[in-house]
Amino acid sequence: MRLSFPPSYTRAARLLPALVLCGALGACAVGPDYVRPGVEVGAAFKETQAGAPGWTPARPGIALDSAWWHVYGDPVLDGLMDRLNAANLDIVQAEANYRQAQALVRGARASFFPTVGANAGVSRAGSGGGTGSGSTGTGSVSNTFSLGGTVNWEADLWGSIRRNVEASQAGAQASAADLAAARLSAQSTLAQDYFRLRILDEQKRLLEETVVAYERSLTLTQNRFNVGVAGKADVAVAQTQLENTRANLVDLEWQRGQYEHAIAVLMGVAPSTFALQAQPFKQPVPDIPMGLPSQLLERRPDVAGAERRTAQANAQIGVAVAAWFPDLTLSATGGFRSGEFAQWLTAPARYWSIGPALAATLFDGGLRNAQIDSARAAYDAQAAAYRQIVLGALREVEDYLIQLRVLANEQVVQRRALESARQSLLYTRNQYEQGLIDYLSVATVQATALSTERNAISLVGDRLIASVQLAAALGGGWDGNVQPKLAAEK
């Protein structure tokens, strides 16, 4: 079957590509083009200018890798990080949000293309007839068979669709940065909890050794009391000292348990199913490779996310401005309609229509002005939030740098104090065994030595945790990529 079309239909069909071409050539994107808000970050970090320990000066190609925790060289921590990256629920949630943002980009891009529809129907209708007093007794029944299609396309003359796509893309890139930030936050929290747990294990080891030493001291004091060399007060002091140390040892159990439970939740498992065995812990504090302050704008995922949200807010201004201009819609409708099925798809049963339509709002009571003002205010707020996040990132890095420097200096002094405390304890014990002093003097020196030992262990933990916080403040091992493969998505 060969269909023929009238000349008017052919002329209209030729008009559609011309209208489409005119719309494409005349299209422009209204609203401001995005420029990243400026913020003064300085040429170098304040602490690095003073040569703070615990960092490496910036050199080309020197940075934390993606698995930044490898700088600690702890196989147990490496295994925990692998489990966290695969099962942490905050990461899973952020990844789902990112997929949702990608879908929104695809949805926004769909507006570039025409909407094509089809319909088919069969209806049967009648009129007249009946058996009443006013009826003629005759009637008619007819059938209608129809098959048609529609095409509608809104020309993006003023860039409203493009600005909307631009906003969606920036939102998806911000979501990608949020995913990286959630992953980095979980990794940093895990590393800190892990080192705190290991430090508690070291504290527990020290207290267990101390309890053994105090038990020997109590036995010695009781023996001296039995032979009349020591007084009852010495025995009481030794007993009190031992029991207090045992109480401190018991107190560490709930603290360790809480960190163990926190690590379990970070890895997405129930605390009852997870246990981390104690082991000897001799972890040096690594040097953290440093960069320049300007690199934070690229390496910090929260900074990148804020910058992308600023771009998103800027694009929304263009969407609001475009509402002032008329919309051009090109539509075409065609098909077949007949009362006889045999003639359904013949030329005489054909119908069609094609043409453009312009629509504009003439009065809205100030709605569009209000929407533009709202979009501009939202951009200003997001730009200020971006600058604030940049300054906060710089402050965090400076805070952890000075903390590492001060803790390193404090540890040097603490080592000298620890050595003196150990020597003092040795001399005091010798004097007690020779009967030159009472046990109260020994207990005082022992308490000082134990406190000094615990402080030394705590300082190691504080430096480790500060190094983890510095690594996270520098962006971890994130490569700064906030532009996922959106262009390749269908």
SSE layout:
Elements: H1 7-25, H2 46-49, E1 55-56, H3 75-87, H4 89-109, E2 115-128, E3 139-155, H5 160-226, H6 232-266, E4 288-289, H7 296-299, H8 301-322, E5 327-338, E6 350-359, H9 367-433, H10 439-473
Parallel strand pairs: 1-4
Antiparallel strand pairs: 2-3, 3-5, 5-6
Helix pairs in contact: 3-5, 4-5, 5-6, 5-8, 5-10, 6-10, 8-9, 9-10
Provide key terms for this protein:
490 residues, alpha+beta, four-stranded antiparallel beta sheet, two-stranded parallel ribbon, disordered N terminus, disordered C terminus
Description:
This protein has 490 residues and is α+β, with helices and mostly antiparallel strands. It contains 10 helices and 6 strands, in the order H-H-E-H-H-E-E-H-H-E-H-H-E-E-H-H. The chain has helices at 7-25, 46-49, 75-87, 89-109, 160-226, 232-266, 296-299, 301-322, 367-433, 439-473, and strands spanning 55-56, 115-128, 139-155, 288-289, 327-338, 350-359. It has a 4-stranded antiparallel β-sheet with strand order 2-3-5-6, with helices on one face. Helix 5 (160-226) packs antiparallel against helix 6 (232-266), helix 6 (232-266) packs parallel to helix 10 (439-473) and helix 8 runs antiparallel to helix 9 (367-433). The two termini are 38 Å apart. 31% of the residues are buried.
Overall pLDDT: 84
Strands side by side in the biggest sheet: 2-3-5-6
Helix content: 55-70%
Number of strands: 6
Largest sheet: 4 strands, antiparallel
Query: What overall form do the CA principal axes indicate?
Result: elongated
* Rg computed from alpha carbons, rounded to a whole number of angstroms: 39 Å
The number of helical elements comes to 10
**SSE sequence, one letter per element:** HHEHHEEHHEHHEEHH
Please mark out the parts with pLDDT under 50 across 5 or more consecutive residues, or reply none: 1-13, 52-62, 484-490
Query: How large a portion of the residues is in β-strands, by DSSP E?
Result: 5-15%
Coarse structural class: alpha+beta
